[in-house]
Specification:
With about 240 residues, the protein is of the alpha/beta class. It has a single domain (about 10-240), classed as Carbamate kinase. Helices cover about 35% and strands about 20% of the residues. It has helices spanning about 30-45, 65-70, 75-95, 120-125, 145-155, 190-195, 200-210, 225-230, and strands spanning about 10-15, 50-55, 100-105, 115, 130-135, 160-165, 170, 185, 185-190, 215-220, 235-240. Strand 1, helix 1 (about 30-45) and strand 2 (about 50-55) form a beta-alpha-beta unit.
Length: about 240
């Protein structure tokens, strides 16, 4: 049997906070779901791929939503950053249970919980086969974790960003609301920005476009999809030049 070879050496996986939840459940974090994510990560790491993970906090707290309800935006965003730390620790625990060595690096210093984000140290961890989980966003309010994913991907020299969503790619309309929505197999950064497709925010797109980092948008719940993606198989929607 011919061995499978990954086409990417180093990736950033962007997970939403909702990825930690079981669909239809009100539980913020499902240990079973998080274990499943860890198992998919292990499949890819076992192919020799270096993996950085950026995780959101929307399953616990959404800063922008709270700001729209009257809370100070800066405070609300910092609360959201702390929510990502909770999710990162949950994923680290699940990874440890199946033998994946990880490091959690935070943009907001909390030395008893996680390492501070230091670019050189993160790269060294990756080179040693550790999965690095980036939490607390960029450490600044008014920036999304999509922007964090784009920033960290650039900082660590990732080949690509894999963005896990609830749908199997980028559509010209919300497929949950419009049954006639068209899915793109491939789309340019400029087209995605021009059509205001809600894949990533404009800051994240611009960072990727300026530095030519492709993005693959896919449904993490599909079995084997992350493995297929790193093997170069056609998965979801590719956003590139």
């Amino acid at each position: 049997m011919q061995s499978e070879i990954a086409v990417y050496k180093r990736i950033v996986l962007k997970l939403s906070g909702e990825a930690m939840q079981e669909r239809g459940s009100k539980e913020n974090i499902s240990p079973q779901v998080v274990r499943g994510i860890a198992e998919r990560v292990k499949e890819v790491r076992d192919l020799g791929v270096q993996i950085g993970i950026v995780i959101g906090g929307g399953n616990i707290w959404r800063g922008l939503s709270a700001a729209h309800r009257g809370m100070d935006r800066t405070t609300a965003d910092y609360m959201g950053m702390l929510a990502t730390v909770i999710n990162g620790l949950a994923l680290q625990s699940a990874c440890a249970q199946i033998g994946i060595e990880t490091r959690v690096q935070t943009a907001i210093e909390m030395k008893n919980v996680a390492e501070p984000f230091i670019r050189g140290r993160a790269i060294r961890h990756l080179e040693l086969g550790r999965v690095v989980i980036f939490v607390a966003g960029t450490g600044n309010p008014f920036f999304s974790t999509d922007t964090t994913a784009a920033l960290r991907a650039n900082e660590i020299g990732a080949d690509i960003i894999f963005k896990a969503t609830k749908v199997d790619g980028v559509y010209d309309a919300d497929p949950n609301k419009n049954p006639n929505a068209k899915r793109y197999d491939r789309i340019s950064y400029a087209e995605a920005l021009g059509k205001r497709l809600e894949v990533m925010d404009s800051t994240a797109f611009s960072l990727c476009m300026d530095n030519k980092i492709p993005i693959v948008v896919f449904d993490m719940n599909q079995p084997g999809v992350l493995r297929d993606a790193v093997l170069g198989r056609k998965v979801g929607t590719l956003v590139c030049d």
